[in-house]
Amino acid sequence: MSSISLRIAELVQHRDSSVSEIQAIYGTTKAAKGSRRYQQYIGTQAEIRYLKRIAKLVQRRANCIHKLFSRYRLVREAKESKSYMKYKKIQAEIRYLKYQAQSFPDFTATVIDDIPSVSFSRFLPRRFAQRQTLRHGRRGAPPTLPNGQEQPRVYESRVKLKRRNRARKSNSTHNGNSGFDSDSEVTKDSGYNSLTDDGSDSDSDADIEDMNIERMMREFEEEGVTLSNPCDGTKEMMEVELEKWEEFCSFTVRQSRKENPSSPLIRIMQDPHRALKMCETSYFKTYLFWRVKHSRIKKESSITTRWKILSMVYARLAEEYMKEGVLYDMRNWIPQVLTPAFGLDDSEKEKSGLFVEDLCRLQNAHWVRDTEVFAHERLRVQLSPFLALAGCTATRPKALVGLRYEDIEFQLFPPRVKGRPPIVIMKLNLKRIKRSGGKRKRKVFAFYEAEDLACCGVTFILALALADGAFKNKLTSLRDVYSLVVPPDTDRIRLQWDEDWAQRPVFRDVEHTANGIRVSLTKALDYSKHRHHLIRLGRTSGFEKKLEFYDLRRASGKRLKEALTPEEHRQIMGHRGDVYERYYMPSFIDRDCQAIYLGSTRRDDLIRAVGRLVCHERAPKALTDVQKFDISRDPKLLELIEERAQCVRDLKDHGFPTIKSAKKTKWFEKHKSIQADINTLKRQLKDDLLEKSITEFHKTVHTAEVDRQLRGIRPVDIITPRTFEYELEERGKVAKLLFKPLDGLTEDQILQVRVELVDNLMGLCKKQETPHQYKAPKKRGRPKACRVYASTDDEEEEDVFQGETDVESDIDWETKTLAGGDSDTESMTSVEVKKPSVVPVLYCPFCKWVDVEAGPLKREHVFSRTDSLRRHIRAQHLCPQAAGEGFVCPYRGCSAFLGSALHFVTHTKHQHGLCL
């Protein structure tokens, strides 16, 4: 109250001064109406009235609480009085006035906020009320008795009191009034669950009383329609479709101005949002027609998806669903008019599945028969558990792409036989899953060490974690895990992650560093690269179909549906309703309907074998040299190459010696665009030709086989397996251990095989095979490439001119320094000049002695020409090294510190006899 009184005194003084100024200027207060001083005077007067009103209410509330405290001991008794109802009314008015304080200056609002919301229950001694309740029951302390006839009832037994209370409770329940004798009121009389601080019975009552209905209605009206909240991927697709709609509107405006400048369509299409919200079917049909004509859309389902996204864009702009009549019209127009007009493919996508037999074939091809060189061998190791987990969890692939170590937990349980190693269980928590019904419902799985090592995700994930040193206890091998013993006072041991590694992804990508290609610590492998690896692996395995991760999801969902209840199946798949039947159920019926009808012995295994994906080991895996030559003679490709050559000639005519020197010019951007078109066309032609070759092979191979056998040429009964040689010793051991038959081995021997497998997988995670074609790290602005090994053709020289990375372009040969760097002449002057006595061997010192992860062939490779070695060193090693703060000479036994790339070139020439 003292703060309110002080504030009122200040305001009265301010008001009096304002009145004096008004009277001195205008004569009277009414004459000053409309002026700034008059508005200040009115505001001050209103604030004084407001503070006086709230001060009066606070005083009345205090008097009311004092009266209640003097008459009643318990809250229950006080609620039945008229004074309490008066207190409630005063309290509600105070809350309303406190809400109005937001319209006054900050100081007044602060003063009002400091007023406590006093409750009558605060003045009741809680422990006293509790003691009275425990002694005398829910009815509280016995009142003063007017006569002796009621005295025995005060001290009646507890049994009788309970019977009477039950009867009272049942009567109040039948009457529809719970009163204050309900079970929820037992603790209220004790003071612990009594009235809230503002005097209401509950928080919900206080919220209702605080509500200003008119104000809330105005706010909700201003907010407008509450829009849907799609996921980020859907928002990106909506933005792309909106851009296409705006492009279509611009195209329509340009064409209309040429044909009919006074057309009203010009004014409409100049505002794309307005045109979209008009919801005219003619506009939508013309847009879809234009969309198909100016794109590579070949399937009806694709344009149907574009239409659905456009309808979502409309709903977001118009803040309402599209009219049902428009949807009905477009739903029938697309298949009946648009599809025949462009010959769109309306066939349904084949819903095939990769079952466990196919997964084993993939793993065998991945580790035994695959000759492709990964950028880093960790990528090869990562692919196996990714496939296994995708099949076992039946989840969408993007849920595994960003998997972090914190999403995985290894738990050790006691073995069934004492003295044996603990049972290793992996708990997998999938958080990044697709929303279902607007919500993300995470899924948690548990996996144990499988009998089939090739399909055991636990073993591979353990190898990745041990190779990274991700455990908090610094476990170094699987032997350390198996040596642990679960103590008898707990049911399990939980292996914790290192704090730094917990936030890092498990399946990581590679990056270019000064020492070559290394596995990134923070960058997760993109879904597109996972998909590329799976497609290439499917080609290696001989599958006719281009594999996708949803093949694993469909196969796993099929097996789960056969084994689980519908509710469990929908939970694992993340579906609602009949989504599986509509989008995942394969067209092939893998049941022996013949045996079911005829009553014969069922052969479901044969039926399922028919439904599996077609595979042949001799299927084409890559293009032949003849096919590559045919692609190089494609007319469209030759036309683009000629345009690129003409662009290069234009650059020379304008005085640019190299393409790189023409950066930020229109000729450079034109060359860059043409080069991108060439790369895109090449990739498209190669993919189409390979797909055609594979389809043609599977169409003719069996006819040729039958003809061969009819001529008497029988296939050999036993096919001699091919002998595979691997550059890295660890990969050979992994391939042998993964597919080693475990039948007949003891449990200790199987554990030893698993330990040896994990050790070799850990070693493989830190190795690299020698690439067939090693490319330089790309800089921002344009792609660059450089071959590692020698080449005698002229194509290499042409590629260098087309803009490959070269240290010479980064060095100012007049000042002998790097561009933007300091000279290092002091360190070069101390070099002792020596003429080499013998011709040096042309190997790369960085690959031979610095790159610890390089393969044996790369370490010992000898270049055939000095210029090839020079390009390799400058592009692969000196450019990254030059960006640092110097480096030590890579030659063995030489400890010279080199400050720049030019310093290394000079040092190598004089000290090691190699002129670069």
Automatic annotation (TrEMBL):
It comes from the Eukaryota. Residues 198-207 have a biased composition (Acidic residues). It holds the Pfam family DUF3435. The lineage of its organism: Eukaryota, Fungi, Dikarya, Ascomycota, Pezizomycotina. Residues 131-207 are annotated as: Disordered. Signal peptide: none annotated. Residues 172-181 have a biased composition (Polar residues). It comes from Cadophora malorum. Gene3D superfamilies: Intergrase catalytic core. SMART domains: ZnF_C2H2 (SM00355). Residues 160-171 have a biased composition (Basic residues). Residues 842-877, 887-912 form the C2H2-type domain. This is C2H2-type domain-containing protein. One of its GO terms (biological process) is DNA recombination. GO terms for molecular function: DNA binding.
